[in-house]
């Protein structure tokens, strides 16, 4: 079964909205390698309409311009791109199609197809749906050392928790933390009485 990974730029206070307004001072070779290892290594991109509009409005021109990022732009152009939207859309960027049918059923079928990893960049609403349906395999967070203090957070308010387990971590020279999580089993009920057995005792 194919693996779905989501990569997000996120602030210290959990904001994922409009990273173009606060992210770029922290972008360096370390982060570029992390992004390329995630999105660049996948052969399929699963994205929301807004992310598609942003990508399609920039990357084809960068590929055509032949600049330093043309190689990465070509990777994105060559990848299969699947857009999630309730509206009927038409596309100008090559290798793009729209996800049809029930979300969970369509994504499950996509995971069962032959091929490489499926990646997401941004598209917070899609990430939330994948987590809600248990379809996201890895969550890659590039945590920036800045409190943005406004904008949409990754996790919205809800009655249920989302337990995760840390698979790996790295610290970049800019202070950015690169954290990779996977879904975890639900946490067991515990109280302070359970936790205090782990606290240092008198004389220790």
Automatic annotation (TrEMBL):
Signal peptide residues on this chain, from the entry's feature table: none
Domain of life: Bacteria
Alphabetized PANTHER family for the sequence: BIFUNCTIONAL DEAMINASE-REDUCTASE DOMAIN PROTEIN (PTHR38011:SF2), DIHYDROFOLATE REDUCTASE FAMILY PROTEIN (AFU_ORTHOLOGUE AFUA_8G06820) (PTHR38011)
Lineage of the species this protein comes from: Bacteria, Bacillati, Actinomycetota, Actinomycetes, Kitasatosporales
Pfam families listed in its UniProt record: RibD_C
Bacterial bifunctional deaminase-reductase C-terminal domain: residues covered: 2-177
Listed name of the protein: Dihydrofolate reductase family protein
């Amino acid at each position: 079964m194919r693996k779905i990974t989501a990569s997000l730029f996120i602030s210290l206070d959990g904001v994922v909205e409009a990273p173009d307004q606060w992210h770029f001072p922290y972008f360096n070779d370390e982060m570029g390698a992390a992004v390329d290892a995630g999105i660049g290594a996948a052969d399929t991109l699963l994205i929301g309409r807004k992310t598609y509009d942003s990508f399609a409005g920039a990357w084809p021109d960068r590929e055509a311009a032949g600049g330093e990022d043309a190689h990465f732009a070509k990777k994105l152009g060559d990848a299969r791109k699947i857009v999630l939207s309730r509206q009927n859309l038409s596309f100008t960027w090559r290798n793009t199609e729209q996800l049809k049918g029930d979300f969970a059923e369509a994504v499950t079928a996509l995971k069962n197809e032959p091929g490489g990893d499926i990646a997401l960049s941004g598209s917070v609403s899609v990430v939330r749906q994948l987590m809600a349906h248990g379809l996201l395999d890895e969550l890659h967070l590039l945590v920036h050392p800045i409190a943005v203090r406004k904008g949409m957070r990754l996790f919205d308010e809800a009655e249920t928790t989302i337990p995760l387990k840390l698979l790996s971590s790295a610290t970049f020279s800019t202070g950015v933390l690169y954290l990779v999580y996977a879904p975890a089993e639900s946490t067991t009920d515990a109280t302070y009485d359970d936790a205090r057995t782990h606290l240092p005792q008198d004389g220790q």
